[in-house]
Amino acid sequence: MVYVLTRQTVQAERPTVLVTGAAGGVARYLLSELGSAYTLRLTDRRPFPGAVLGDLCDADFARRVCSGVDAVVHLAADADPDQPWQRLRDPNATALVNVLDGAAAAGVPRVVLASSLHAVGGHVDAGQAEIGEDVPPYPCCTYGALKVFAENVGRLYADLHRLRVVCLRLGGVRDRPLARSWLPGWLSGPDLVRLVTAALTADVEYGIYHGVSANSTRLWRNDRARAELGYQPLDDSAEYADQVPDDLPDGSSNHFGLRQRILHLT
C-alpha cells in the first residue's frame, strides 16, 4: 500500500521531507513555510545552515540522504538556460536519476520534481497564445530539454517503482515580476508554497503541472494543477503591470526579442 501524505497526517505525524537544492533561490521561498508543517532534511552542494553537504551526482550520497524520508522535493539543478550540455548534464540529469534511484531504494513514496516552463517554451517562440498542460514537450533550450528528460524519467520511475511523481513546471519565482515578459509566467513565493504543499498531499500517481500564479495574462494554463492537485493560487501579476519595464518592444520579431519572452522562466 502506498503511503499518501495528507493534510491530516501532516498535522498528526510531521513526516520528513527532503529538500534538495536548499541553498537555491526557489528553496528560500519554501523552507520556512514547509518547516512549519514538516520535518525538513536539507541538502545542497554549497554550505547552507542546517543542510547536509554533498553532491547528488554521487549515487551513494543520494541514497544516504534519501533514506528515512517520507517525500522528496527535488529542486537541485543548474538553472541557467544558456549553459551547454556539458555544464548541465551532471546537475540536471545525473543528479536527478540518482535522487530517483535513492528514493526508490529507500521506499520513499513521493517525489516532487521541479521542472520548468522551459520544457514547453518552444510553443512561446512558435507564437502560441495559450499553452496548456497537455501540449507536447517543446523545449526552448538545452535546460528545457533536460527538464523534458526529467519528466519522462519521472514517469518511468512512477511505473517501475510505484513512486508517486509530481512534476511542477515552475514559472519565474520572485517576490514580484521584474519586467513585462514576466507577467504571464510569474509565480509568487506564497503561491509556490501553495503549489508544493498541494503536490505533497494530492492523491495522484504521476502528473505534469504548470506552476504559475493566478495571472490575468493567461498564456500558461494551469487547469490540471487546480483540478488534480487542488492548487489554488491567489496572486496576480496584473497588480504590478504598470510598475514593470516593457522589455519586449511591440512587433519585435528578432531572435533577441523572442529570447526575452522566455528569460523569466524558472
Notable characteristics:
single chain; 266 residues; alpha/beta; Rossmann fold; seven-stranded parallel beta sheet; two-stranded parallel ribbon; 9 strands; 36% helix
Given the C-alpha coordinates, what overall shape results?
A: globular
CATH topology: Rossmann fold
Radius of gyration: 18 Å
Low-confidence stretches: 6-11, 248-262
Helix content: 25-40%
Structural class call reads alpha/beta
**Biggest sheet overview:** 7 strands, parallel
Q: Please provide the count of β strands.
A: 9
CA distance, first residue to last residue: 35 Å
How many separate domains?
A: 1
- Which class in CATH terms? Alpha Beta
CATH superfamily: NAD(P)-binding Rossmann-like Domain
Mean pLDDT across the residues is: 90
Order of helices and strands: HEHEEHEHEHHEEEHEHH
CATH architecture: 3-Layer(aba) Sandwich
Main sheet strand line-up: 3-2-1-4-5-6-9
Count of helix runs = 9
Chart the SSEs and their pairings.
Elements: H1 7-13, E1 16-20, H2 27-35, E2 39-44, E3 51-53, H3 59-66, E4 71-74, H4 85-106, E5 110-116, H5 122-125, H6 142-161, E6 164-170, E7 172-173, E8 186-187, H7 189-201, E9 206-211, H8 223-229, H9 255-260
Parallel strand pairs: 1-2, 1-4, 2-3, 4-5, 5-6, 6-9, 7-8
